[in-house]
Automatic annotation (TrEMBL):
Its EC number is 6.3.5.-. It comes from Enterocloster alcoholdehydrogenati. InterPro entries: Asn/Gln-tRNA_amidoTrfase_suB/E (IPR017959), Asn/Gln-tRNA_Trfase_suB/E_cat (IPR006075), Asn/Gln_amidotransferase (IPR018027), Asn/Gln_tRNA_amidoTrase-B-like (IPR003789), GatB (IPR004413), GatB_C_1 (IPR042114), GatB_Yqey_C_2 (IPR023168), Gln-tRNA_amidoTrfase_suB_CS (IPR017958). Belongs to the GatB/GatE family. GatB subfamily. Heterotrimer of A, B and C subunits. It catalyses: L-glutamyl-tRNA(Gln) + L-glutamine + ATP + H2O = L-glutaminyl-tRNA(Gln) + L-glutamate + ADP + phosphate + H(+); L-aspartyl-tRNA(Asn) + L-glutamine + ATP + H2O = L-asparaginyl-tRNA(Asn) + L-glutamate + ADP + phosphate + 2 H(+). Keywords: ATP-binding, Ligase, Nucleotide-binding, Protein biosynthesis. The gene is gatB. Allows the formation of correctly charged Asn-tRNA(Asn) or Gln-tRNA(Gln) through the transamidation of misacylated Asp-tRNA(Asn) or Glu-tRNA(Gln) in organisms which lack either or both of asparaginyl-tRNA or glutaminyl-tRNA synthetases. The reaction takes place in the presence of glutamine and ATP through an activated phospho-Asp-tRNA(Asn) or phospho-Glu-tRNA(Gln). This is Aspartyl/glutamyl-tRNA(Asn/Gln) amidotransferase subunit B. Residues 330-477 form the Asn/Gln amidotransferase domain.
Amino acid sequence: MSRQYETVIGLEVHVELAAKTKIFCGCSTEFGGAPNSHTCPVCTGMPGSLPVLNRQVVEYALAVGLAVNCQINQFCKFDRKNYFYPDNPQNYQISQLYLPICHDGWIEIETESGGKKRIGIHEIHMEEDAGKLIHDEWEDCSLVDYNRSGVPLIEIVSEPDMRNAEEVIAYLEKLRLIIQYLGASDCRLQEGSMRADVNLSVREAGAAELGTRTEMKNLNSFKAIARAIEGEKRRQIECLEDGKPVIQETRRWDDNKESSRAMRSKEDAKDYRYFPDPDLPPVVISDQWIAKIRARQPELRTEKIGRYISQFGLPLYDAQILTGSKHLADVFEAVTEICQKPKEASNWLMVEAMRLLKEHEMEPEDMKFSPIHLAKLIAMVSAGEINRTVAKSVFEEIFLSDADPEAYVEEKGLKVVNDTGALQTVIEKVLADYPQSVADYKGGKEKAMGFLVGQTMKAMKGKADPAAVSRLLKENLT
């Protein structure tokens, strides 16, 4: 009988904070920009330059720590992590090893297979990002862009409490939503503002001792993370089954090949020769400062779901979908405040907006239309100025180009035709053109009415009220 194995997973999640300037200088943190245009002597490691801590970075780190139930180190320090690499201009990184700002927290996740589970957070520390190497295969050289050097990060280190990819993704999704709701980061994986390194080991089921772990990097989507976990789990089990040792190392995941390769042996803290940074004083965090940050904490997803159900009368399913993106929730609340029709606002966002997001391969955060325009559309439908079929096509214009629905409907002549005489003329023609359907309806076939309504709406180019069409058809047929 083959041995059974258990996977043990911990994560190191790096999050780029939403501060407008870097952690130790006044350079812009804006994504993009010409290479090396957001730089100065401090973030390019020039001799004699001195770092000055950005207060906003500390406040974001505190906000995240409090939201994930961490203890706060009210006396914390920065340390130098020494390593030599071309994208690291100082030849060290300023980080926190000995006294990180937050420690001993947790978040609760929920999965279909395992239900609710608490995942421990070992620590959260502040640090600076490195630059970025661009490998030019055509010129056979590597170029370096220091725009990202000094961008403020927090690193959230979990306990090794996760056992499969489903738990990992649930943890990352919960963490991302918390940070987005706090406004501490946009957490866009595709832009690198949220990055996860996966520490994974396997051991025989029931064993108390942990196996040898590897760390996987280059993971820029949840799907890639899930595939990497499955791939590394298989690789380590095959090693153990073949009697080979698992080597502690850092591995690079290639999502196209669905395999990983060794990058370097895994370093320990001693290899980095950490020591307290001599240029930065300790950070002293008062009780009053913590209280101020705690008082500013926004409504997070769990509380928002409860409020949507109690205040707006939404079903749990609607509330969960709408709060699954902070931007989507913000749009819903803005539309509802204007039109005072929460269920209508919810329906448009959950059905039509979600359909268009899928069609155009967009994220909710990519929606740019004004809530005022959706509120106007809802009002126009409620007032009977346009029918729902026309409203769907108008919403598509709002979604794609933020069109003003009133102006668009007027320009395209899409208002409902309320001229009973004009509608009566069209109905008489439809009844004359489809005598068989008329006979079918009179013979008791109710489906024939649907066909006749459809033909009338088609003749009216969708600009009639379906209820009025149905009523007039029945009057004519009886």
